[in-house]
Specification:
By secondary structure, this protein is an alpha/beta fold. It has 11 helices and 13 strands. Bound molecules: NADP nicotinamide-adenine-dinucleotide phosphate and ligand G4F.
Length: 324
Amino acid sequence: MTSNKSALITGITGQDGAYLSRLLLEKGYEVNGLLARRGSDTLWRLRELGIHEQVKMIDGDLTDLSSLIRAMEQSKATEVYNLGAQSFVGTSWQQPVLTAQVDGVGAINVLEAVRIVNRDARFYQASTSEMFGLIQAEKQDEKTPLYPRSPYGVAKVMAHWATINYRESYNLHASSGILFNHESPLRGIEFVTRKVTHAAASIRLGLQKELRLGNIDAKRDWGFAGDYVEAMWLMLQQDKADDYVVATGVTTTVRDMCEIAFRHLGLNYLDHLVIDPGFFRPAEVEVLLGNPAKAKARLGWAPKTSLEQLITMMVDADIRRLGG
Ligand code: NAP
Ligand code: G4F
């Protein structure tokens, strides 16, 4: 059966790209992905979800406008999800120029490709709670002023405002999802939740002894990526494009998240934790807490997975992968 709905996803090989692909395939879309071909096993997430043969890959890179124009033409996309990014905050201090080019200018490249090839295509920008940085309100919503604290946050602010500007300048159906941290068994191992669940599993199986972390007093509003990709799709089904905060409305310290992961395996995280100043950041985002009221009211979206369910799901997946 051929579908008349065609999506183009940048960042298809990432955590969100995999879950969004699965959701769109279930809804009958033809799913096209921009493949940057930079790693050796970049398709592992799509393979884990059993969908790697159902998505069509188009070679391209966010920093190459010509490849994005070609991807728009080839895919005949009616919906474009810009999820591609150098998404690790810590690395953005080591590679600030690359981060600005991929996460900031890259988003403008995608907007230009949409404007040039098909102005009727709907566009989603992966904005982030990291833009709130040094928070200007206790609970952050769509109206909270932005104060980024990392080169990554700065680049994402550029992309966020470019999305609004293309909506206002060219009447593009361009929406931004300001998503708070979301995790899953497909999360990259450099992010703190997965680092912790993988370490807990390794320690339980006798493969590792200690877990080295930085600022464990930082607080994050963590949700499940599988729930959050649904909000992305809902944004593009609205008559009018807009910006939405997607969050759980609950914030938890890294410390308490560790406790949940280790307790699930009958361990005490304090027996294994080493604080390593090497993981402290030049400027920290101490606390994030989102208010998803607008997404609830307008999109009918609500998170379905608690932090406890999320972390235990991740620990169980890591135990399975390590052969336990
Ligand atoms: P992720 O797992 O790190 O995936 C990033 C994706 O971007 C990968 O597919 C990567 O390809 C691709 N990419 C990197 N550089 C590229 C380039 N130059 N050209 C084309 N593609 C490139 O990130 P995620 O967690 O799925 O997040 C998805 C998006 O949401 C990102 O934009 C992120 O910044 C944003 N976001 C994430 C969260 C969160 O908590 N997860 C919250 C708010 C916003 P390779 O596989 O080849 O590296
Ligand atoms: O898991 P993290 O690296 O995520 P961070 O920096 O909040 O960024 C993630 O969420 C953003 C949304 O707000 C996304 F836009 C972004 O792309 C990414 O997905 O760190 C979370 C917290 C930080 O405060 C960090 O300092 O955990 C703290 N932390 C403490 N020890 C650590 C570690 N983080 C990492 N990655 N590794 C540590 O050892």
